[in-house]
Amino acid sequence: MVLGHSQCGAVDATIKGGNPPGHIDSLVQAIKPALDRLKKQSPDWVNIVAKENVKIGVERLQTEDPILTARHEDGDIEIVGAFYDIKTGKVSLIM
Ligand SMILES: [Zn+2]
Q1: What's the gap in Å between 74 CA and the centre of ligand 1?
Q2: CA of 80 to the centre of ligand 1 (A)
Q3: Which domain CATH number covers 12?
Q4: Choosing a second label site near 31 at 20 to 30 A (CA), which of 14, 18, 51, 78?
Q5: pTM of this structure
Q6: Please, are residues 45 and 15 in contact by the beta-carbon 8 Å criterion?
Q7: What angle do CA 39, 42, 44 make, to 5 degrees?
Q8: How many domains does the chain have?
Q9: 35-77 pLDDT, tens per residue?
Q10: CA of 95 to the centre of ligand 1 (A)
Q11: Taken in order 63, 69, 72, 73, is the CA torsion positive or negative?
């Protein structure tokens, strides 16, 4: 399971741009492709980008991972994406 979460500070830093300090910048670089895949801003934008980042993570594990991709293709394992809502405590599957 790839688990994203709501109100993510790293996603927020990615959206705001610039060069955040320390290890946050490596997170921003990792999240940037999710932001780049989406076209326009909308309400709840931070959470939309966070969910897109989960989707990219799942796609990578399904197609590019040296171990998990083959296991997934053989039907041995499932690779799913989920989102943790900090406000409600709920985790929902998103793919
Ligand atoms: Zn976060």
Answers
A1: 32
A2: 18
A3: 3.40.1050.10
A4: 78
A5: 0.92
A6: yes
A7: 125
A8: 1
A9: 999 988 889 999 999 999 999 999 999 999 999 999 999 999 9
A10: 19
A11: positive
